[in-house]
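To: structure desk
From: M.T.
Subject: fold request, one chain
Message: Could you run this one when you get a chance? Sequence is below, nothing fancy, just the single chain.
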Amino acid sequence: MSEGDAAGRLVRPFTLTGGRTRPSRADFTLITSVTAVDPPPDGSDRSQPEHQRIVRLCARPVVVAELAAQLDLPVSVVVILLCDLLEAGRITVQAPRPVSRAADPDLLQKVRDGLGRL
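Reply: Done. C-alpha cells follow.
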C-alpha cells in the first residue's frame, strides 16, 4: 500500500460521514438487521453514492457487520450512514431477538441423553 492509499483510507470515512464521529442513535449492533424500504419515500433520491449502495445491498435483510464487510468500511462509519438512511425513511431495522437466559431442563436432559448415546 502506498502512502497515498493509506492517507485516503483515513480521510475517506471522515468525509463520508460529513465529519461526524458518533451516530445519532445508539441502538445499532453488529447483528441488527437492515432492510431497504421499497418503494423509497418521496424526495429521498438526494443521497450520496454510499447511501445508495447501502440501500442496494439491503434489498434483502442484511446485518450491520455484513454491510461493513461488503462496503469495506469501519462499522462505526456504516452505522452513521445507516442512521442517515433510517431518518430519511429509506431503511427499516430489526433489533436482534433477546436470547432467553432461562435453561429448559427438558431440553438440557435431551441434549445430555443424546451426547451419552454418542
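Reply (cont.): The two ends are 51 Å apart (CA to CA). Let me know if you need anything else for the meeting.
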